[in-house]
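In response to reviewer comment 3 from the previous cycle, which asked for concrete evidence that the modeling workflow produces usable outputs, we include below a single protein chain processed end to end. The sequence was submitted unchanged, and the resulting structure tokens are shown without manual editing.
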Amino acid sequence: MKILLDPQIFHQQTYGGISRYYTEVFSVLSQKKDVEIVLPIYSSDNAYLKETDLTVKNPGLLALYKVLAFFKISTRSLRKKKSDQLLDSLFQANDYDVCVPTYYNPYFLEKIGNKPFVLTVYDMIHELLPEYFVDDDFRVVERKALLLNKATQIIAVSHNTKKDIVKVYPHIDPDKITVIYHGSSIKINPDVKVDLPKNYVLYVGARPHYKNFKFLAKSIVPLLKNDPSLFLIAAGGGKFNEEEINYLKELKIDQQVQQRKFEEKELGYYYQNAKCFVLPSLYEGFGIPVLESMACGCPIILSKHGSLPEIAGDAGIYFDSDSEESLRNKIEQLLSDQDLRAEYAKKGAQHVKKYDWNEAAEQCLKVYKKAAENN
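The workflow returned the following structure tokens.
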């Protein structure tokens, strides 16, 4: 079977759950003798793709990119141009069984003719919480709706995401949607050390409004003020913007809330050494940090929204997202009770074993084959 993997998400993300998903799944599938993966990229800034053999080999081009990089000449536009040229030639050759778009730009529809394509839906947050995406230049809702209607098969990353697809678009046949969970990717390197406070609560990733970081910050104020040794660490997500800085100053906790940039190999250390990890999001289609935290033995506190209860199960501690006191109490319980932390760390380590990229890849392949056979 020959699969044409559309490259759009790898042009958009250096890090991110979606590009990680495709990298993990297709790294597994590329090892199969009866499966050929074609990803029309010669070189990429994507951190996960760099660690694989999925890109197309062109020694001449790679040498050119290295020379330009040596002279500090940007190669981004040239690499994108070369990738687009290769992609067009593959569309024209029409020599593949199924196309797999990696995000919602529908440009490929006019290129694939009658060839089948399988769409993966990661969440339905733009449709369910539109107030947070008023200025969406990418037009996710419009484009996703178009692709959902035209897709040969659909993969949803959780049962909750499938439920939300059918809720928003009841005309879509649920039998066309297969639920396939992610696996756990995080690797713990015992040689990696990071200079962190000894006593901290961890938040990981971006901080747009629906992620509810400000709610977490406000909830934890009394705990920080009662214990000068306690910190809230926001790992990744970029530096605090002016609004966030002013908000933390207003709460008078700016000296105990830190934003940290990390290398991918360091993330496990952040989880391993935290008292707990908090995911206060108002919606998640899956929630990769849930698996990361559990795999690292870090107890997790999370909201009951979206797919989070489905993914975390009884290995998570849940709070009432309408109550700062509820979240504060859950954090305080873990901070003050080492046995409780150990109990949930053990639960998480056991629970995360059910999420496996090899199994996810096998299930994806079945869907790709079904799309090709039924077309």
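The two ends are 14 Å apart (CA to CA). We consider this sufficient to address the reviewer's concern, and the full set will be provided in the supplementary archive.
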